[in-house]
Design brief:
It contains 2 helices and 35 strands. The chain has 460 residues and is mostly beta strands. The longest helix has 15 residues.
Length: 460
């Protein structure tokens, strides 16, 4: 198979050249002035909560266009189902091309408009690359010098959205032209140096969480994804919001972890917002520490909880539909002393199965489980082989679930499995020498897969 290693070389000198257009190193003044006054009109960087010296603009809340057979968001769609339609995946996992590069840290790839967008970390910072889906040829790159920690991009309409953290400007959103990577607008939260979540545009706006408000509260603000103008800001009496909201049926859903102070536990919550106004329209208490974004199914939200059960909640009433309580400790040791209690991580939601992984948190292997979405009945279980074997969060296309398995044992290979989502039966297997950090994503009949030695694409 052809390699595109030469086409996307990690030449440090060319990326650090300040005359290159694709290097992002913005001063505070540049952040404020970039992209046709988006910030001077739409909400200057870092102003105080509630201080709005102008009437907010009327934002365009028409949803950005995305194709069903593309992987436009970190978890495929705004519902975080991580499940594409059958036509998005190839019939067999035959490699089309690979870009050889040592990848120790990278964001989950997203795919749109025949382009693969992936962020990789290097010794001098982070680079976001756009690769041709069919050939692997690098189309453009955008460098973020002295920025570390990679995230997944979102690609919708004709724009790529990337959320990163700069020493000078804090958490910053970049809206880049999908065609050539030029900066269209930016928005920054000064003095905020928390983990920057991926960006998921919903109903024409991107809703971001300012975690600096204080204990027990969060500030949310919305940006028009086409212009960067601020549409609204609101304060919620909830902290520890999931970094990613989920969106469906004209609502945006956030999960709150709750908090624990001097042994007093504040319950978490699942709440719904009107994305056009920021008004909270629905809220229900979750008596567990919610971990990760909600996954939205047919009138049901699925929630994983930290060291707790997997929970399904009805979106019309807020009542619990089912839960899977996991109390068994896999491996030797005492829960809460030597090891944490096993925790679920949500994966793919297909029409027939919710596939989730269960982190053992011991030397024992992780579990992969399939559940009936309506009732929570466990359909099947698979155990990672080898000492301290672990799975990635699964993805899906049609009724196929895909998961990568790693092991520290030399005699147990790292593998990618294609499984029947409803039964867990193995349909296809590939082995790899390098680490596998996530399951593949799918677009236009291709599977895009980042391993420890580069980007690989499987397709016809």
């Amino acid at each position: 198979m052809p390699s595109t290693a030469d086409a996307s070389s990690d030449d440090v000198d060319d990326v650090n050249d300040p005359t290159r257009r694709d290097v992002v190193s913005l001063s505070r003044r540049q952040v404020l002035g970039v992209a046709v006054g988006a910030l001077t009109v739409g909400g200057a960087t870092g102003y105080a909560l509630g201080a709005r010296p102008f009437k907010p603009p009327v934002c365009d809340t028409a949803p950005l266009s995305v194709e069903a057979d593309e992987w436009s968001f970190p978890n495929y769609d705004r519902q975080h189902t991580s499940a594409a339609p059958p036509r998005a995946a190839p019939d067999t996992l035959d490699e089309r091309w690979h870009a050889e590069r040592e990848l120790t840290r990278y964001g989950t790839p997203t795919v749109a408009n025949d382009r693969v967008f992936v962020a990789t970390e290097r010794r001098d910072g982070v680079v976001l690359r756009a690769l041709n889906l069919q050939t692997g040829r690098e189309l453009w790159r955008r460098a973020f010098p002295d920025v570390f920690g990679v995230n997944a991009a979102a690609a919708a309409g004709d724009t790529v959205y990337y959320h990163t953290n700069t020493d000078e400007n804090g958490v910053t959103v970049f809206a880049l032209a999908m065609s050539d990577g030029r900066v269209r607008w930016t928005d920054s939260l000064e003095n905020l140096h928390a983990y920057p979540p991926p960006l998921v545009p919903s109903e024409g706006v991107a809703i971001l969480n300012d975690a600096t408000v204080g204990q027990g509260a969060s500030r949310l603000y919305a940006l028009d994804v086409r212009t960067g103008e601020q549409c609204w800001a609101t304060r919620l009496d909830a902290d520890g919001l999931s970094s990613l909201p989920a969106a469906a049926d004209g609502r945006v859903y956030f999960a709150s972890r709750g908090s624990s102070d001097d042994g007093d536990r504040t319950p978490g919550s699942l709440l719904a917002l009107d994305p056009t106004t920021g008004e909270t329209t629905w809220r229900t208490e979750i008596p567990y520490g919610v971990d990760g974004p909600p996954v939205l199914g047919n009138r049901v939200a699925y929630l994983s909880t930290f060291n707790g059960p997997l929970v399904a909640v009805a979106l019309d009433t807020g009542e619990e539909v089912w839960r899977d309580e996991q109390t068994e400790l896999f491996g030797e040791g005492e829960v809460g002393t030597e090891y944490a209690q096993p925790s679920y991580e949500l994966g793919a939601l297909t029409p027939d199965a919710l596939v989730a992984k269960l982190d053992a948190h011991t030397e024992a292997g992780d579990r992969l489980r399939g559940f009936t979405p309506e009732t929570g009945e466990m359909l099947w279980e698979r155990v990672a082989e080898g000492t301290d074997g672990w799975f990635t969060a699964p993805t899906a296309a049609g009724d196929d679930a895909f998961v990568a398995e790693n092991s520290r044992d030399d005699d147990v290979p790292n593998r990618l499995f294609r499984l029947d989502a409803e039964t867990g039966a193995v349909r296809e297997t590939l082995t790899f020498e390098s680490w596998l950090h996530h399951a593949p994503v799918f677009a236009d009949g291709n599977a895009v897969f980042a391993t420890g030695d580069g980007i690989r694409v499987f397709g016809p």
